[in-house]
Design brief:
With about 70 residues, the protein is mainly α. It has 4 helices and no strands. α1 crosses α2.
């Protein structure tokens, strides 16, 4: 999902985290739940489709099932 942003720096800005924290999220393939509201807002502002609480929950559930 992070790759749908124009850049990792823009994702970090929308998530309100440092670039390094965003890089760690991307590396582990997981976004902590506390960042979801900011990410959803950022995606909406940027017109990035498919980012919602429902899509984030589905990704979260799939990751948990895989581990």
């Amino acid at each position: 999902m992070i790759s749908t942003w124009p850049s990792l720096a823009k994702f970090a800005a929308d998530a309100r985290v440092s670039y390094g924290a965003a890089k760690k999220m991307r590396a582990r393939g997981s976004i902590r739940i506390k960042y979801w509201p900011a990410i959803i807002d950022g995606a909406c502002r940027r017109g990035i489709p498919g980012v919602s609480s429902k899509s984030l929950m589905a990704a979260h559930t799939a990751a948990k099932a895989a581990s």
